[in-house]
Amino acid sequence: MSNQTILGIDIGGTYIKYVVKQGDLISKGKLFIGDIKEKPDDLIEKFIQIIKKYSPKKVGIAVAGLYDKKEETLSQSPNLKSLEGIPLKQILEQKTKTDITIQNDASAAAYGEYRYGAGKGSKILVCLTLGTGLGGGLVIGGRLFTGISGTAMEIGHTTIDKDGWICHCGRKGCLESYVSSYGLERLFFIKTDRYKSSFEIIALANEGKKEAVEVMEEFSVYLAYGLMNLLHTLNPDKILLTGGIVENYPVIEKMAYSNLKKLAFSLPFRDVEIDLGKLGEFSGSFGALAIAEDSLIKNSKV
Ligand SMILES: [Zn+2]
């Protein structure tokens, strides 16, 4: 089994990122799909090409959005609308004659960090992905917790203000409407009356520009409320922060930690470690890979 090829693919709204494991060797790749994301046939063709290129024994896929684990379709995906309702697993299995498992990308990221990254050995691991949206994943006792339908840990769409900002999901006051790239852009706009992209804001903060640093500080307060809710609900031993915002502005972790200290119960706060993820933009791909590896072992035992 050690020489078998296993593939982990993370399908986002702009890129496909994948990791290939052949024996002990792991390689990574990244493909731009921003130009074809509205075209499901082209997307599927691209997935098939990657799978056929490596002829893996097993493929794990992580995908942005609510993945219905009973119906095995992508139920809702703000960043990949064209794939909603499509039986992706069935189509890819038929066309590539390969076993496929599919999981939500933030859950996969948590499992990736647990198996290959900064979450190794954690008993109750929460992983938050701060990027275009806000994703969450939970690994308890080494097992990924995804809920009955597969939608657990949608922390981004828990409400922190019933009259708050409109979220991409259409609800008001979701945590994601503050703690995400578009939340950051709104915070900056309200403070300065100027529009800048999240990357520009982070670059300004990294240069030490006062108003950008203040906006990041404000952002970290909202993040701390999210962390407090998780801490009070789950009492985890580790919370990992990952995703584009954190990778480009890692000091956000220290900011959020000191705000969390002021907000949270002292007992769960004492026992939690907040840290940065290790796998960067490939955490979802590594998680997809690990899930595929697990299912291979499970199948070989039966
Ligand atoms: Zn929402």
Write a brief caption for the model.
With 302 residues, this protein is of the alpha/beta class.
Write structural notes for this entry:
The protein has 302 residues and is of the alpha/beta class. It has 2 domains: 5-105 and 281-301, ATPase, nucleotide binding domain (Nucleotidyltransferase, domain 5, 2-Layer Sandwich), CATH 3.30.420; 118-277, ATPase, nucleotide binding domain (Nucleotidyltransferase, domain 5). Helix content is 41%, strand content 22%. It has helices at residues 40-54, 88-96, 105-116, 181-192, 198-206, 210-234, 244-248, 252-263, 266-270, 283-301; strands spanning 5-11, 15-22, 25-32, 58-63, 66-68, 73-76, 99-104, 124-130, 134-140, 143-144, 238-242, 273-276. It has a 5-stranded mixed β-sheet. A hairpin with a 3-residue loop joins strand 8 (124-130) and strand 9. It is globular and about 55 Å long. Bound molecules: zinc ion (ZN). Zinc ion binds next to loops.
Describe the protein's topology.
Blueprint: E1 5-11, E2 15-22, E3 25-32, H1 40-54, E4 58-63, E5 66-68, E6 73-76, H2 88-96, E7 99-104, H3 105-116, E8 124-130, E9 134-140, E10 143-144, H4 181-192, H5 198-206, H6 210-234, E11 238-242, H7 244-248, H8 252-263, H9 266-270, E12 273-276, H10 283-301
Parallel strand pairs: 1-4, 4-7, 8-11, 11-12
Antiparallel strand pairs: 1-2, 2-3, 5-6, 8-9, 9-10
Helix pairs in contact: 1-2, 3-10, 4-6, 5-6, 6-8
The protein binds zinc ion.
Zinc ion is lined by residues 157, 167, 169, 171, 174, 176.
